[in-house]
Amino acid sequence: MKVEKAAKQLEALGNPTRLQVYRMLVRAGKDGLAVGRLQDRLGIAASTLSHHLHRLILTGLVRQERQATTLICRANYPAMDALLGFLADECCVDATPAGARAGEAA
Amino acid sequence: MKVEKAAKQLEALGNPTRLQVYRMLVRAGKDGLAVGRLQDRLGIAASTLSHHLHRLILTGLVRQERQATTLICRANYPAMDALLGFLADECCVDATPAGARAGEAA
DNA sequence: GGGATACTTCCAAAATTTTCGAAATACCCA
DNA sequence: TGGGTATTTCGAAAATTTTGGAAGTATCCC
Questions:
Q1: Which nucleotides of strand C come closer than 7 angstroms to any CB of the protein?
Q2: Reported confidence tier of residue B29, pLDDT bands at 50, 70, 90
Q3: Is the confidence at residue A33, as pLDDT, over 80?
């Protein structure tokens, strides 16, 4: 994963409203949740919610599927796994090796 | 973890420069990295880096320790673990149970 | 004390984000 | 075709973020 992409995804999750939306979708699982259901729970303007959803979708964290007049939103779990992996990745690889001491031979 | 706190941390990581800083610190491990070393690698103004570091520190993702005239920065690993846990947490708990079908008795 | 290095805080301009009403679009049903 | 529900796009104001030069603070060394 590229830093730019990860940053975009983290930025998308870094807004309280979008994070709530995302968590609702994560909790909802494979059934997903309609845009209208999200709006009912959040109590914000439809256009505001639509903008937030758009950003989550642009980053690949959320997917939408139309069912007649309603749009079902779902968390994209593999994308979340990739992002979590990116953050935890390569922990300490540049650290001084455990046995190393000043003046010690390589 | 509260949604507000998690959102602040994600927002802090959601900027390419700050994410790079954070990853450098994660890679650096327990030794950490001086502010000046970060600046050398990033090539940005010292004041800009200082602002970014301040945000990472405010959210609790990064800690600083003074060693003489230099400030050593370190990733706060427990904070990262808590954030990752928050995101993965409660996946699918609201989902329709696997055996559920329309009209099925509870 | 004087002077050097390391880093932060102050200030401010430019860019971006957040918000939502109004208008537009998508789809279904009769 | 006409009308209704669901959702997005347009447009724009207010708030926040990002950036860095200049000035300030902290610590060390002589």
A1: 4-10, 17-23, 26-29
A2: very high
A3: yes
Q: Which nucleotide is nearest to A47 (CA to C1')?
A: C20
Tell me the CATH architecture of domain A3-86: Orthogonal Bundle (1.10)
Is B29 in contact with A91 (CB distance < 8 Å)?
A: yes
Average pLDDT of chain A? 91
Q: Which two tokens stand for residue B16?
A: 């390419």
Judge whether residue B44 contacts strand D, using its CB and a 7 Å cut-off.
yes
- Among the listed residues B8, B66, B58, the one whose alpha carbon sits nearest the alpha carbon of residue B35: B66
- State whether residue A41 is helix, strand or coil: helix
**Are the CB atoms for A73 and A29 separated by under 8 Å?**
no
Give the residue whose CA sits closest to D27 at C1'.
B69
Question: For A51-80, how does the pLDDT look when each residue is reduced to its tens digit (9 = 90+)?
Answer: 999 999 999 999 999 999 999 999 999 999
β partners of residue A62: A75
Domain boundaries, given as residue ranges, for chain A: 3-86
Give the chain B residue whose CA is nearest to the CA of A18: B7
Instruction: Give CA–CA dist A87/B87, Å, rounded.
Output: 12
Considering CB atoms only, which of A8, A90, A96 is closest to B26? A90
